Amino acid sequence: MNVLCAIAAESVEARDGVANKTSSRPSCSTMAFATAVGVGAPVRSSLVPTRHHELTRSRPLGGRVAPTAAAAVRMDAGATSSGAPATPKPVGIGIIGCGRIGQVHAKAISSTLGAKLVAVADPFEKFGRSVAAEFSTTWVADWKELVANPDVDGVVIGSPTPFHAEQIIACAEAGKAIFCEKPISNDLATIDSCLEVVERTGVKLLVGFQRRFDSNFQKVKSVVASGAIGDVRTFTITSRDPSPPPADYLAKSGGIFLDMASHDFDMARFVCGAEIESVYVTGAAIESAAQEAGDLDTVVTVLKMSNGAFGTIENSRRCGFGYDQRIEVFGGKGSVVGGNKSADTVTVSTEAGIGAGLPYDFFMDRYAAAYTGIMGAFVTMVAQDGEVPVGGADGRAPIVAAKAAQLSVKEGRLVRLDEVDLVKAAAGVA
Ligand SMILES: NC(=O)c1ccc[n+]([C@@H]2O[C@H](COP(=O)([O-])OP(=O)(O)OC[C@H]3O[C@@H](n4cnc5c(N)ncnc54)[C@H](O)[C@@H]3O)[C@@H](O)[C@H]2O)c1
Known about the structure:
Helix content is 37%, strand content 19%. By secondary structure, the protein is α/β, with parallel strands linked by helices. Residues 14-15, 19, 26, 30, 96-102, 121-124, 143, 158-161, 163, 181-182, 208, 210 line the site of nicotinamide-adenine-dinucleotide.
């Protein structure tokens, strides 16, 4: 057992939205994720199967890595009184919640030139101090202290979802740029309250749909946008996890549409450059984990887009050959396909057959570069006061689609998104 797991073992009760201040830290499985995001891109040995939620990583928790991302410095760095250029002031970033995703972001910030991780906030002292030490930064128990810190220009919210809204609003009122992990909230009215404050205060909010920064999906998007395949007619998104999450996670996940498919609803909007108008879902709970959680583990969603395109998303909580993340977009002049990613691209051909490595089986491996990319985009956005690459409306739309998908399952019919988007319906927005 490594040191961090030993700390975690003292108390394992504090996951998923319950900030039990008497506990020292979430479970060891969270620590496994932390361990898995150690220095350098973790490479899975094809000889040692690792699974999504298992404690199988032995790589030590890694902090700083050699800076790799593009330099991003504040535009207000100015000059010295002597007229000589001032040393650019780094963009100060604070992270709220340093669990598995908070550490992914801490690692990315540590490798981004022109960014400085000013502090991390987490209610669990031993754990928070350990993470802070790994990343050579300061730990604070109270996230409000981090938000009030004048050296913090931008705040990364990686706390459990139920805390996002309060933290977004506090950051916005304090004038801080915000990166919020998806989802902003699982409740549309709560999302709207947040977005109102963001709008009123004029701060920038970037929502953590990191798949938009995956090189495959970016290329698919740019090919579609270039017109090379003509008008988009259909698309097929395949999104399968290697194995279901633990029962306690499933029970609080919000269900397959909010927890898992929301990424795919975002991808449909991203690659098509259009809004989702309606969804129709067929699904099943094939395994006991989903049955006991009252959820589904296998679903096919048919989507109709505002530009006339239509497509399917296939989700499965289990996939025997790894983390299956693919897309095809078919147009009037051709198609574009984005495939899986593997630790290597070696193909072995013998008289017995032709074999290649399996895809990554862990989302943090598959999307390692995407997480770095989105955090680099956040730092650049803050430094240059630039465009928001994934804004509040992008954070909201997949949640509307998820609500529509839930209703489609319940009523066994096609559901238009405006049926569940009560705020827009009340405002008379089409
Ligand atoms: N974009 C993605 O692919 C992706 C992947 C994983 C998680 N997420 C999202 O990130 C968020 C966090 O998920 P996670 O898996 O890292 O969870 P986690 O449980 O591993 O980490 C959450 C951390 O927040 C801390 N915390 C608890 N209450 C807090 C509070 N009130 N203020 C500050 N910190 C608090 C916990 O101690 C813990 O360290 C969730 O919203 C989740 O949906 C997104």
